[in-house]
Write a sequence for this structure.
């Protein structure tokens, strides 16, 4: 059986793009993978690790006969990338992306890929990791993970089906959501926790006597702040790209802290316990897959 | 060689008290362990698991000849416990505790154990866990963990040495701090993160459409909210017991969030990245033991 895809082009061969390439090749779903990137060193590493078969460029030779193009750069670089590739994409090339935010990526596509909107299917693989870069890529990154597609009204049914098939070939569980809803949900469950974790470590880091604080930080602190070791530029871009939804979530959270602050001031034990108890009940139910 | 301690009395045979008993017995440092508690079922479980040798009560028979007494109940119950045991403690009984907060425990000791202050040495073993109760107790809970002693000016040198020796026999690394400083440090690195984690889950838990949010929550959320599965009453007590320090830390954190809120509103990419980058640098250094 011939592979489902002929030539795949991956723009940005880091964790997301490199793992997509490896997974499709491992599944026998791609006959050729071509990589595009800003850093020659990264592309060479991707070549030597077998993530890609060859290095391409943002030109007709690379893109004109591409079956499927994945944009896997930081979201901040996508508008420029779309603009650069627009003239060179083939008539049949289907484009998807791996960005953590969708509203901004879609706005960029409407601006820079207006003629290709039917074949641009936005996607968000939920498979981040603290480590990034080509060295962290692996064929099973998406196995059993969720990928959210946020199709556009303009999308061709065939393009949508092909993008869905590609992610399923990677082993992912594919969901669909409206872009706005996607951005709100991920602002709440991903972007805000990252911001909160960075904020806690930053607050302590700025103290003259920080060493004594960190010396006694234990496993709870370790878990809570694990995501504060994430990539600063990437998360800056995500927070800015999704700032409207994130500001809404941040304000709701600030309201929660105000409530708890007041309860502490007033020594309102019942109010504090009610917050903690509901959180624990729901957190445990979620962990056990019993949340409804 | 005779054990370092004759009779040990553990008040509250949960994770902290039960593990202390097991560790001392495993080290051959106690000849007899007697348990006191409010729940007969818990005491029976502690007996059947060998955490304690027998069940005692808050009376002269149990406490009069005790070498070492550990208060291992939730901190909210300690004042009442101290009051109940005060008339029965022996002249040579040394008392310590396992509370996560020290200012309130010391205040209770000054009120209810005024004649025993020389032999009451406050302690905080840094060995929490999501699970609590006698069933979670284990002999190696304290191995390699930190225990902070916050000695009182009134403490006998001998009592301090004996409490130190007991925790060292449990395998712990013993530190000393002033009580106020202890409470500030733990408000920052433990109590505040718990409050923040509970608050995030609670905020989402109250939404009608919460299921969709939790469905897409991934590993970052899982780590960040692990401590939101902690014991609600225990953490309510800790937050109230240490409310002055916790309010100070919470207000500093709210200030951080204000700064990030403003930076997001103003799309100040440099300010956001500066916060995230410093947090990541310090978090990684801490993880690698290179923080100075």
């Amino acid at each position: 059986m011939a592979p489902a895809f002929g030539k795949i082009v991956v723009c940005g061969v880091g964790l997301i793009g490199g793992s997509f390439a490896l997974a499709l090749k491992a599944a026998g779903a791609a006959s050729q993978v071509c990589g595009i990137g800003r850093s020659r060193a990264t592309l060479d590493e991707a070549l030597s690790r077998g993530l890609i078969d060859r290095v391409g460029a943002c030109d007709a030779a690379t893109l004109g006969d591409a079956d499927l193009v994945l944009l896997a750069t930081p979201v901040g670089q996508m508008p420029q990338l779309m603009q650069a590739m627009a003239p060179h994409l083939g008539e049949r090339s289907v484009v998807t992306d791996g960005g953590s935010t969708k509203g901004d990526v879609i706005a960029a596509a409407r601006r820079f890929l207006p003629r290709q909107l039917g074949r641009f299917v936005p996607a968000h693989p939920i498979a981040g990791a603290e480590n990034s870069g080509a060295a962290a890529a692996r064929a099973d990154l998406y196995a059993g993970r969720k990928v959210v597609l946020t199709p556009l009204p303009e999308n061709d049914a065939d393009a949508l089906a092909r993008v869905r098939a590609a992610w399923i070939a990677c082993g992912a569980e594919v969901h669909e959501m409206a872009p706005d809803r996607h951005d709100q949900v991920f602002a709440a469950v991903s972007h805000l926790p990252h911001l909160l974790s960075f904020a806690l470590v930053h607050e302590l880091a700025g103290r003259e006597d920080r060493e004594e604080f960190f010396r006694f930080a234990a496993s709870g602190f370790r878990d809570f702040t694990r995501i504060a070791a994430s990539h600063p530029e990437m998360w800056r871009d995500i927070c800015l790209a999704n700032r409207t939804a994130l500001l809404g979530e941040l304000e709701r959270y600030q309201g929660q802290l105000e409530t708890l602050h007041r309860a502490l001031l007033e020594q309102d034990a019942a109010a504090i316990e009610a917050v903690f108890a509901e959180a624990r009940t729901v957190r445990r139910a979620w962990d056990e897959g019993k949340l409804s």
